């Protein structure tokens, strides 16, 4: 080592005598963010398989509540379409007496669960049938050839929408037991059952979602903790040479953000694939019930919510890991 | 006027033992001081207190009028940026080149890349490692690694250099070169505090010597300067 080399590097000695930051902090801060972002990209690209698994875990954890929300929103929309048609139809026997028909009308009027009753006489039913089959010459001809009207008196009963499905079935059994009744058909039974199943799925799904979300935070925590451990020597040196607490924490918050946002994107992809897969069979099912539904709920707001939720999970996991590991290991 | 002060400092560890016991001392700005004593005498503990890596159990560590214990997590890093720290085990990062290791203290201060490169080249030249910048620490000898550690300590033009056994892995020739380098920084205004048990090397430096034993400051002497001895 040659003499006086220190002169060339020492230069003007810093005049800073007190240990406080001075000037240029914003530019320095931005430069540090650029550097950390670039390091994070490199770090993740070097560990793409393990990073993918973290994204998948967070993605699944987010996709489940997301899908439940989308399905619930569509179920609500389906219910809205059916509103008013929920109820039952009482078909009187062809040989039912005038008295039986009048008794049934009176019973329905007295029933508190009934919101409205629409009676249809055999003649009205025949006219409706003729009107509906106007396009079919064959059907028109067949009806004309029938000597007596084969259609019974019926009552279309709209029920109070607050009534549970169980009340509907009880009423149905009670009405079917009355004299002169041939059949009681509960309308939209499948929809009510679907609603009940949906409520059950929501409850179970919510509990499962909560557990998966906790698992996602733990997975991020574990991944960040490993990253901290891998860089512990470096962090100790950085702390010794004057890296601030923010500078030490920043890379790991970036990892958390990257894991969380990646998980959010994964969740959106999973949801899109799932909804796309069930759309055709669901449409076909609904057509068989004389209804249609275009799956909605997968909106830009929904996508943004999933991304923000993913980011929050990632950063949450990183913050836990930092408080548990970094602060315990590094004397800042 | 004192630049570094320890005022009745005691540092007690969790197991009850004392690393330092009621130590008081003053060190002037721009001076070079040696800390000596056997292993476990408290040299490293004293340096760690000055770095802010440990806090005193009682007493005050004051640097340029500021109590280190009162700096808090916001100001402590800015204080450490004024320090050049040389550790016995080098603490080099094995996944980074020599150049990047030396550049670390400058990167945390967000200097421009050109300025970082200029200063790192200067620091490597100072320790005669100009041609080693592209290598990784594992490719260097122990002595060369120690010199990289010294280059990293001085690259940010520190006001205070704290060195813990900086010549522990060096041969006598390189040890004297390192001491010459510290003298140059002292002459430029840095305050240099070197912990070493190499008495032969220390007594030739003509500097103040603080002798620690079992955590206590037992002797504070001024060695005769080498030039005075020669005359």
What this model shows, in words?
The complex is a heterodimer of chains A (332) and B (231). Chain A has 332 residues and is an alpha+beta fold. Chain A folds into two domains: 29-81 and 193-329, no CATH class; 86-187, Alpha-Beta Plaits (2-Layer Sandwich). Chain A is 70% helix and 8% strand. Chain A has a four-stranded antiparallel beta sheet with strand order 2-3-1-4. In chain A, α3 crosses α10 (245-288). Chain B has a domain at 1-82 and 191-231: Rossmann fold (3-Layer(aba) Sandwich), CATH 3.40.50.300. In chain B, the strands form two sheets. Chain B has a six-stranded mixed beta sheet, sandwiched between helices. Chain B has a four-stranded antiparallel beta sheet with strand order 2-1-4-5, covered by helices on one side. Residues 227-231 of chain B have low confidence and may be disordered. Chains A and B meet through α1, α2 and α9 of A and α2, α3, α4 and α6 of B.
Q: What overall geometry of chain A do the principal axes of the alpha carbons give?
A: elongated
Q: Which architecture of the domain at 1-82 and 191-231 in chain B does the CATH hierarchy give at level 2?
A: 3-Layer(aba) Sandwich
Ends distance of chain A: 34 Å
Q: Globular, elongated, flat, extended or rod-shaped: what is the shape of chain B?
A: globular
Major sheet of chain B: size, sense and barrel closure?
A: 6 strands, mixed
The CATH class name of the domain at 1-82 and 191-231 in chain B reads Alpha Beta
DSSP strand count of chain A: 4
């Amino acid at each position: 080592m040659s003499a006086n080399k220190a002169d060339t590097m020492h230069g003007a000695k810093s005049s800073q005598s007190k240990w406080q930051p001075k000037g240029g902090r914003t530019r320095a801060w931005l430069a540090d963010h650029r550097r950390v972002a670039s390091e994070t990209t490199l770090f993740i690209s070097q560990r793409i398989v393990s990073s993918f698994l973290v994204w998948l875990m967070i993605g699944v954890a987010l996709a489940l509540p997301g899908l439940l929300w989308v399905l619930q929103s569509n179920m609500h929309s389906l219910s809205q379409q059916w509103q008013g048609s929920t109820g039952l139809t009482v078909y009187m026997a062809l040989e039912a007496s005038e008295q039986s028909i009048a008794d049934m009308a009176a019973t329905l009027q007295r029933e508190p669960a009934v919101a409205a009753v629409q009676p249809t006489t055999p003649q009205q039913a025949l006219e409706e049938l003729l009107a509906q089959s106007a396009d079919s010459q064959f059907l028109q001809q067949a009806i004309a050839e029938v000597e007596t009207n084969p259609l019974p008196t019926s009552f279309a009963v709209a029920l109070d929408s607050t009534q549970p499905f169980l009340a509907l079935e009880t009423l149905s059994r009670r009405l079917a037991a009355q004299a002169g009744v041939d059949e009681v058909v509960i309308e939209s039974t499948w929809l009510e059952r679907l609603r009940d199943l949906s409520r059950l799925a929501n409850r179970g799904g919510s509990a499962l979602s909560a557990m998966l979300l906790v698992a996602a935070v733990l997975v991020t925590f574990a991944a960040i903790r490993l990253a901290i451990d891998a860089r512990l020597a470096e962090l100790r040196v950085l702390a010794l040479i004057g890296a601030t607490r923010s500078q030490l924490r920043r890379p790991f918050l970036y990892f958390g953000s990257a894991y969380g946002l990646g998980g959010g994107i994964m969740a959106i992809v999973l949801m899109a694939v799932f909804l796309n897969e069930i759309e055709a069979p669901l449409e076909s099912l609904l057509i068989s019930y004389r209804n249609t539904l275009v799956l909605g709920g997968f909106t830009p707001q929904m996508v943004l919510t999933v991304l923000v939720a993913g980011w929050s999970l990632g950063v949450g996991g990183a913050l836990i890991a930092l408080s548990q590991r970094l602060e315990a290991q590094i004397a800042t | 006027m004192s630049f570094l002060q320890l005022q009745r400092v005691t540092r007690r560890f969790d197991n009850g033992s004392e690393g330092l016991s009621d130590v008081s001392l003053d060190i002037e700005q721009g001076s070079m001081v040696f800390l000596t004593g056997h292993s476990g005498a408290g040299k490293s503990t004293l340096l760690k207190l000055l770095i802010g890596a440990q806090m005193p159990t009682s007493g005050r560590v004051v640097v340029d009028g500021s109590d280190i214990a009162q700096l808090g997590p916001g100001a402590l890093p800015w204080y450490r940026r004024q320090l050049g720290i040389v550790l016995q085990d080098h603490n080099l990062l094995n996944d980074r080149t020599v150049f990047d290791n030396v550049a670390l203290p400058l990167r945390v201060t967000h200097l421009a890349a050109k300025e970082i490169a200029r200063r790192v080249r200067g620091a490597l030249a100072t320790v005669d490692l100009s041609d080693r910048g592209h290598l990784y620490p594992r490719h260097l000898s122990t002595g060369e690694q120690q010199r990289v550690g010294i280059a990293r300590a001085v690259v940010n033009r520190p006001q205070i250099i704290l060195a813990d056994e900086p010549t522990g892995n060096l041969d006598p020739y390189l040890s004297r070169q390192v001491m010459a380098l510290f003298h140059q920084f002292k002459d430029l205004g840095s305050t240099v505090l070197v912990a070493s048990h190499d008495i032969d090397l220390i007594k030739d430096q003509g500097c103040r010597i603080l002798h620690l034993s079992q955590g206590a400051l037992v002797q504070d002497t001024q060695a005769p300067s080498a030039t005075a001895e020669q005359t």
